[in-house]
Amino acid sequence: MTLTPRLFTLTWFSRLRRRLRSSEAWFIVLAIVIGGAAGLLTAALGAIARTLQHLLFGLPALTSLSSLSALTPLQFLLLPLGGLMLAGFTWITRARRRAMVDAVEANALHGGHMSLSDSLVISGQTAISNGFGASVGLEAGYAQLGAAVGSVAGGALRLRRADLRTLVGAGAGAGIAAAFGAPLAGAFYAFEIVIGAYTPSAIAPVAAAALAGASVSQALGIAPYIVSATANVPVPTVDYLLYALLGAICAALGIALMRAVAVVEAGMRKLLVPGYLRPAIGGALLIPIAMVSPQVLSSGHGALHLDLAIGFPLALIAMVLVAKCLASIVSLGFGFRGGLFFASLFIGTLVGHLFAGLLGLVAGRPLLTQTDAAIVGMAALAVAVVGGPMTVAMLVLEATHDFFLTGAVVAASLVASTIVRARFGYSFSTWRLHLRGETIKSARDVGWVRTLTAGRMMRRETQATPADISIVEFRRRFPLGSASRAVLIEPDGRYAGILVPATAYAEGVDEQAPARSLVASPTAPLAPEADIVAIMARFDADQVDELAVVGPDGVVLGVLSEKFVRRRYAEELEKGQRDLFGE
């Protein structure tokens, strides 16, 4: 039989899909390809943003915007102009007309499905925001593009839900690995931030993708976002206590930053400021902040290196710290697109530097090395804002190669992470989703909960019984033992309650009374869109065996039993466990 080109392609595609679903080696190869593509896209996005900054601000070669000592009046005007450009780009792409999904939301709620076009829009918005000097980082765009590549590839190959989520995490981790030149940090970013769990089945593909992304970035000669290395000097035990205190301070500051961004956004909505004007207003508000110091602009990569390499007087550090926090709040609160990851790294170095300096003033002698304290503060604040203590610990280890300092980083990061989880409960990405009405607190897969709705699980009710028939007539229709329940409806078809037929055979029942009289207080029915968690909560609260499902018009659609609902929930949990271990 001669295969036509189309049939040959379909046959080849089907074989490839079967191999990817059944062979771990082939799946790792796919992850490597996705990681390499994420590395290329990371390099391209970074080049676009850097080119914008160099052209607009006239930066010398190998100089970043945040490392400048001053700006000219015309350069300050680029900030509101950037807001207008962002608004124009958003209007052209119709971005405000739809909710665009990021990697965390995709993996938590949508089984890893993302839109490539929306991801390109998000990345374009991020490049414009960063390129015009807004106090946002590019890491959100890096992760978005990498995750979108993984999602599109997995969707085209029609892979399983768990495999698709793994590819989304692998792509996002590869983008971060390429940006920071840190494959271990990229892999842990995938697990902690995007996948939401350390899954044994995902270790090899995620690690391979992160290595591929970092290798591609290195091969292209992209300078990674790393910090200066430090000497491997043992950290005294008492210093761990001081670093733990620093972690607690960073946790409080991180929570304050995230809440402040939400307050500013809510304030803009209350003032009814048109959406297209918000970035321009935010850019204008950035001008007086940037006059304090240009270090507050962009992600702060160059300023971070200056702070670690040179060090500044404590008064200047405190001033830049306040200004950078304000700049980040204004940028994100007024609609500029970008991440808070690298901004939190820079703010954390300032907090650590200031912490060590003030301790030295109080004690009359240096208690902590300022550079070490700056790096620990950098890690602790990043963990407070973004989450992922091991992600940041690996970032520090790969950047400094200092195992002693990494131990202090882990201690401070765990303190910061614990406080934020206990007192706040969200990272910056999940906090933004919470403000939109979502309930997720991590990228852990809970999307299946929303697919198991009352409307999908119910048994269709085709023999609803009029509630006004007599008990005699009810007994005739439902002989004892013939049914476990009867759904009663009013004459207009609206739900009236569920009656157990055996109740009609009790002694002393008035045979001429209507059937509805045996229903003491009808249990409130379920809406068809109620998810399985809400349904189980209703069963626990009402203490009944069955609940009716009623449409918006009050008409009974079906019935759900508690036994069936809990069995379906257990089946899904068991399936999730199998996916977790790759079984």
Summarize the structure.
By secondary structure, the chain is mainly alpha-helical. It contains 24 helices and 6 strands.
Strand content: under 5%
Let me know the average pLDDT.
86
Q: Which strand order does the major sheet show? A: 1-6-5
CATH architecture of the largest domain: Orthogonal Bundle
Largest sheet: 3 strands, antiparallel
**Kindly, what is the distance between the CA atoms of the first and last residues, rounded to a whole number of angstroms?**
38 Å
Using the alpha-carbon principal axes, give the shape.
elongated
- Helix share, percent: 55-70%
Instruction: Report the total helices.
Output: 24
- Give the low-confidence spans: none
| Total tally of structural domains | 3
User: Structural class, please?
Assistant: mainly alpha
Any idea what the CATH superfamily of the largest domain is called? Clc chloride channel
Give the SSE string: HHHHHHHHHHHHHHHHHHHHHEEHEEHEEH
Radius of gyration: 29 Å
The CATH topology label of the largest domain is: Clc chloride channel
Quantity of strands, as a count = 6
The first-level CATH class of the largest domain is given as Mainly Alpha
